[in-house]
Amino acid sequence: MNREKLMKMAGAVRTGGKGSVRRKKKAVHKTTTTDDKRLQSTLKRIGVNAIPAIEEVNIFKDDVVIQFLNPKVQASIAANTWVVSGSPQTKKLQDILPSIISHLGPDNLDNLKKLAEQFQKQAPGAGGATAQEDDDDEVPELVAGETFEAAAEEKDKEENQAS
């Protein structure tokens, strides 16, 4: 067929208008406000109460801290539910540790000591790790004709004789 004739025919095809097939149902776009309303109604049913005058909330996960400054805090003691809403910031534990030491009570000193030990182990050249501990992590070097088991047994014998 001729290209011009094809273009003319394509121009004659129409979508919509008189005689076209109707849409089955109207597309409904969900808004985020419905989610917020549903959440608020669920929290109201649980019976949460706002807790005023909280300046900072820190959530600890491994070596990362999620920090909320001036959050809105709601709680339901009976349902064991706490709601913290606000803008979060993710920070490393090392960065935030000096500012939260004053918040820790005497019962948290053991946890603080454990954290300090973890930091010493993670830091290269820290005084907490000895040379023998470093050797335990390494794979023993093999000599031609030896197996891993034989090399490990020799190393165990050397350690037992030394102690």
Write the element-wise H/E pattern from the N-terminal end onward: HHEEEEEEHHHH
> What average pLDDT do the residues reach?
77
Give me the Rg, rounded.
33 Å
Question: Portion of residues in helices?
Answer: 40-55%
Structural class: alpha+beta
First-residue to last-residue Cα separation = 95 Å
Q: What is the strand tally? A: 6
Biggest sheet strand order reads: 1-4-5
Strand fraction equals 15-25%
Number of helices: 6
Main sheet: strands, sense, barrel: 3 strands, antiparallel
Give the overall shape: flat
Question: Spans of 5+ residues with little confidence (pLDDT < 50)?
Answer: 126-132
Please specify the SSE layout and strand pairing.
Blueprint: H1 3-12, H2 32-46, E1 49-51, E2 56-61, E3 64-69, E4 72-76, E5 81-85, E6 88-92, H3 93-100, H4 109-122, H5 131-137, H6 148-162
Antiparallel strand pairs: 1-4, 2-3, 3-6, 4-5
Give the tags.
3-stranded antiparallel sheet, alpha+beta, flat, single chain, 163 residues
